Amino acid sequence: MSVSIAGLSTAGIKFTRGMPRIALGLEAVEPRKILVLGSIDRFLERRLESAGAKLAKTSSILEAQRALVAQTFDAVLVQPEVHGALDLVKTIKLGGSAASLRSAGDRHTAVPFFVLPFSGETEYAVIVRPPLLAYLEDEQQLPIAEAVLKLDVDALTRRLPSA
Question: With contact defined as beta carbons under 8 Å apart, do 12 and 94 qualify?
């Protein structure tokens, strides 16, 4: 059975295909502090670091939880094949978490979580504020590094209807 990022839809996250390109700046924004859960390929790592990004690498959800509680990141990259990784994304982005993670969820409300493609896939997810700001992108159309470095969350959230 094939697993894909789109399968997160059954977890209460509704995706729109493709981020509005207006939310992607022409230039990379200031260097970002990025939490990485799991491993990323060397090309992506080099691309992010060469743009000045500071990567905080974790290999388990426990390490990632501790990092999310301890500090605020500008972006989070999640390897979906790490055991419990998608549950962590749902907990932080959809709420309903334990008190210890609730503050991390509150601090990371507008922080984009990039769920990397499953092995052999090219589709990845960008989750900012579900259900309205959750997107599926294709690595071949918009490389992950470009999305991570250029996503302007303020431009994206301006598109939200007023409450």
Answer: yes
DSSP string, 97-128: --HHHHHHHHHTTTSPEEEPPPTT--EEEEEE
> Could you report the per-residue pLDDT of 19-46, keeping only the tens digit for each?
766 566 656 566 689 999 999 999 999 9
Half-sphere exposure (CA, 13 Å, Cβ side) for 39?
A: 4
Q: Are 57 and 78 in contact (CB under 8 A)?
A: no
- The two tokens of residue 13 are 């996250």
Taking the CA atoms of residue 90, residue 97, residue 61 and residue 145 in that order, the dihedral angle to the nearest 10 degrees is: 40
pLDDT in tens, 2-17: 445 655 655 667 777 7
Q: Quick: pLDDT tens for 142-153.
A: 999 999 998 888
CA-based nearest residue to 110, from 160, 154, 50: 154
What is the bridge-based pairing of β-strands 75-78 and 123-129? unpaired
